[in-house]
Amino acid sequence: RSSYSCCYFVLPCCFFDFHGKYSRRQSKKTQYREYLDFVAQVGFVCGFHVEEDCLRIPSTKRVSFIGKSRTYAAAEHALIDQQITQFINSRTCAVATCDRRVGFNHKDHCDGLCKEAGSEPPEDETETAGTIWMPGFQPREKVEQIRNCASLPRDFVDQVVLSVANLLLNAAPQKSCSDKQGGNMNTWNQGESLSLREVAEHLNKETLKKLKSEYGGLQTLLKNNHQVFEVLNGRVHIRDWRKEKPPSKTKPEVKRRISAEAFKTRLCWFFIHHPDGCSLPSEACPYAHGTEELR
């Protein structure tokens, strides 16, 4: 509805209508197929030649719709827009009357929408979203802010990682973790495990404030640093790479080649920062023990 030249791609997933959960109308179809038909219907009502495709993705919800061309000429845009208005209003009224979770008066809302259903569409396309669509509609920002800790400054992330690692190493008396496979009884300090809450209590307020603005906060940052930490059931552990399962030899050749190409492309955090160094010998560690090993 934004413009005549608009095209769209949609991958339907959760069963929602314009104003709440989608209500089933046919018991002969599966809920998923019925919802797909509804989404396709929206495209047809909006004047699109709707094409259906099945994506090659590992998901049970993989049927998509594409609208690349219109079923009407540009001169008929105002007439089709009126048709769209009536369709949206009819769907919104039907759902709003049974959706009691919404904060405004459903009867007044529906009466107002139904009275407007036959009116001419607004001439000014730049009118507010509330008048073009429906009260309370808030479109997503054009540029969505990345808030998964990936955009945090590298120096800040490194500082938090080092602080948390030192906290775990010094939280309890040094533990011995022997490499029994090779008969080597050298000790390597794996430190203690602490809950996310305990870790957060030891971080300063400025650090916590910065992390709270990110989705997942501290937990996401620690999980992103998979090389150093392991987060299980809300507890943070320092990862011991000797306990990691070796890569399967039955992997397809392509996957084996990708794994080999990714080998030693980053420096080993433990080799640089851990007081006992890395728990693995250089030839077995997937990370570089020194810049001379970087690939």
TrEMBL record:
Domain C3H1-type: from-to ranges: 262-292
Compartment annotation: Cytoplasm
The encoding gene: Trmt44
Protein's recorded name: tRNA (uracil-O(2)-)-methyltransferase
Chain's role: Adenosyl-L-methionine (AdoMet)-dependent tRNA (uracil-O(2)-)-methyltransferase.
Gene Ontology CC annotations of this record: cytoplasm
GO biological process: tRNA methylation
InterPro entries documented for this protein: tRNA_uracil_MeTrfase, Znf_CCCH
Family: Belongs to the TRM44 family.
Annotated catalysed reactions: uridine(44) in tRNA(Ser) + S-adenosyl-L-methionine = 2'-O-methyluridine(44) in tRNA(Ser) + S-adenosyl-L-homocysteine + H(+)
Single Gene Ontology MF annotation: tRNA(Ser) (uridine(44)-2'-O-)-methyltransferase activity
Record key words, sorted: Cytoplasm, Metal-binding, Methyltransferase, S-adenosyl-L-methionine, Transferase, tRNA processing, Zinc, Zinc-finger
Record-listed E.C. numbers: 2.1.1.211
Major localization class: cytoplasm
Keyword Transferase: yes
Main enzyme class: transferase
Segments forming C3H1-type zinc fingers: 262-292
Range of residues in the leader sequence: none
